[in-house]
Amino acid sequence: MSIELRHLGIGYGRRTLLDDVSTTFAQGSLTALLGRNGSGKSTLLRALAGLGPVASGEVLLCGRPLVQLSPLERASTVSFVTTDKVRIANLACEDVVALGRAPYTNWFGRMQRGDRETVARALELVGMSSFARKTMDAMSDGECQRILIARALAQDTPVILLDEPTAFLDLPNRYELCTLLQRLAREEGKCVLFSTHDLDIALSLCDSVALIDTPHLHHLPTREMVRSGHIERLFSGGGITFDPVSQTVRPAEKG
Questions:
Q1: When comparing pLDDT for 209 and 240, which is higher?
Q2: Contacts made by residues 40-44, CB under 8 angstroms, sequence distance 24+
Q3: Which of 23, 84, 124, 148 is the most buried (most CB within 10 A)?
């Protein structure tokens, strides 16, 4: 297992988002994190990355308590792609990706041959080798998101967390990006966990689904999650209905 939650509790202020959550996310798996707006998806991801507080319990990354990892150890264990639009002008894409090598470079931050090879391979994996010398200010949102994922790959961590990676993409690019994440999990052996509102994509491409049902987290293999009724119950009151047979969502019928 790459991520283990033991009786985890998170929240902000006096509000509890998750309480007494215990589950594991395995190496080589792609997991979608679902939940209503404000349910704590981003807060959970930040806590798993060591960037947010944990109210109770603990997070283990690759068998080690997160709180015991030094900043350098954490940076070589987990990478995090945020939902923010990032466009770094005047910096070539390969240089943006090279930022992921920071935990491994020498005191002067100089790239060695192995670092450059890792950067080149990361760009190749996301299909962006031809963009190596281009700058992000002249690229589409989907292309920029691929570069940020390449930076996470160059960081060479067993765990990759992504917060709404498809938020600014059209439907074809959302499928293409999530297919890339699926391939990275299965072929590169990464533990990939990403938050999303794209229920159709999550159910068609992911190995498992983690569903925040405050203050609980239901985490099941995708087929079992569909049969469980959790998704239908959680989302049916929000103006949509979920068809467990076709595994699609549609606007709720008005009575």
A1: 209
A2: 40/10, 40/11, 40/212, 40/214, 41/163, 41/195, 41/212, 42/83, 42/163, 42/164, 42/195, 43/10, 43/11, 43/12, 43/17, 44/10, 44/17, 44/18, 44/212, 44/217
A3: 148
